Amino acid sequence: xxxxxxxxxxxxxxxxxxxxxxxxxxxxxxxxxxxxxxxxxxxxxxxxxxxxxxxxxxxxxxxxxxxxxxxxxxxxxxxxxxxxxxxxxxxxxxxxxxxxxxxxxxxxxxxxxxxxxxxxxxxxxxxxxxxxxxxxxxxxxxxxxxxxxxxxxxxxxxxxxxxxxxxxxxxxxxxxxxxxxxxxxxxxxxxxxxxxxxxxxxxxxxxxxxxxxxxxxxxxxxxxxxxxxxxxxxxxxxxxxxxxxxxxxxx
Length: 251
Known about the structure:
By secondary structure, the protein is an alpha/beta fold. It has four helices and 16 strands. The strands form three sheets. A seven-stranded antiparallel beta sheet has the order 4-3-7-1-2-6-5. It has a seven-stranded mixed beta sheet with strand order 11-10-9-8-12-13-16, with helices on both faces. It has a two-stranded antiparallel sheet with strand order 14-15. It starts with 6 loop residues before the first strand and ends in a 6-residue tail after the last strand. The relative contact order is 0.15. The mean pLDDT is about 95.
């Protein structure tokens, strides 16, 4: 079982399947039990490329993990091309995940940011913690087939509630009254969500999305500014995050 030490796995691909117009799911067997917190990520070596590609973990059970991803470049194109039985080099888990508290919760996932909060939702269910899951997508064609959420919204209204995930979140805050919020998505969504939550005095844990190179805090390529002890300091998303308290981030 992985604790603080990161490991390298020669994982076996169980499947790669298209789950929406632009999203894919890869499931792999690491061949030994792994302990991953929701919000942590792993990095995948892509044949012929120097830098590994980091991905939030969508699911983890014993030795098997699942990852949701979109095809954006050479790395994800390679991962999409993998077949059942292929070997893939995976390192991790990296970073700090969500701290699941025994409080009434709202989890918010925008786009592919659905992955880590869906993982957290499964952990909440195992612990008997009330956790409403809200997710938002541009349109119904972008909603992965595997999505299970309490509330789904689409920008164009083609499925679920019409409007942004931010609009839906504010309405939920008024009626559902969560004690804590967990979120992942584009920077602007997280920023606006934290600002909205502050009006209701609700703390927010955010899983930040940022391009990474080394994944261990050495290259400093994923630095953000964070408030700490009255000062503003630089923190790396890969090592100090990806999860931060929204109130600490300098947006």
